[in-house]
Amino acid sequence: MNVVPYKQHSGSKKEQVAQMFDKISKRYDFLNHFLSLGIDIFWRKQAIKLLAPESPKIILDLATGTGDFALEALSMDPAKIIGVDISSGMLEIGRRKIAAKKLDHKVELLLGDCEKLQFEDNKFDAVIVSFGVRNFEDLGRGLQEMYRVMRPEGTAIILEFSKPQKFPFKQIYGWYFRGILPQIGRVISNDSSAYRYLPESVKHFPTGEEFLQELRKAGFNNCICKALTFGVSSIYIAKK
Questions:
Q1: Element (H or E) spanning 201, and its range?
Q2: DSSP 8-state class, residue 192
Q3: pLDDT > 90? residue 38
Q4: First to last CA, the chain
Q5: Checking DSSP bridges between strand 221-228 and strand 124-130, what pairing results, if any?
Q6: What's residue 94's pLDDT?
């Protein structure tokens, strides 16, 4: 099922996701950290910690948004990180953050389609994504593109929301994620659809073993899932 942010609109999921992130871009970073109580920062650090032993030198950050995952990946001292996103609004915020830190020589953010990457085969040592694959219009195509542009023996790290299964966290999570979070997001972002889309998109997205199967179908091997914070999110690790 392809969940879209604006059900009343006729545009494709890709068009609607770009429009949604353009609209909320100025409040996105604040909302991300506020609504997750700052745990999203910890999750990104954990994901990069798993990649660090590989010492990747050229990294692609897909659905980079405002560049938080790319900036976290700098802790591995790569030669270059390229971020790609379909939202020009998010990229504008990200470029400002990178320029303020004087990191333009290390991190480059590009407007582009993650399902039609403009890079040659086997270019990147690692491909990373945080909370982005859920927004792909064609998940299989997006994963195949990740596989194509990654060099043999390279590593993919995907951080994504999942669904807690154990009592009582499953119930607490459901109450917060479907009831409280959309209301706070609507008030602060002035977009009632954006934070309704978040829990809906998580609900219908494959998680755990289901997502590992999608990675294998795209060609990846040695696929592993590591649950974080009682299963609220997961880190997926896959090799080429």
A1: helix 194-203
A2: T
A3: no
A4: 28
A5: unpaired
A6: 98
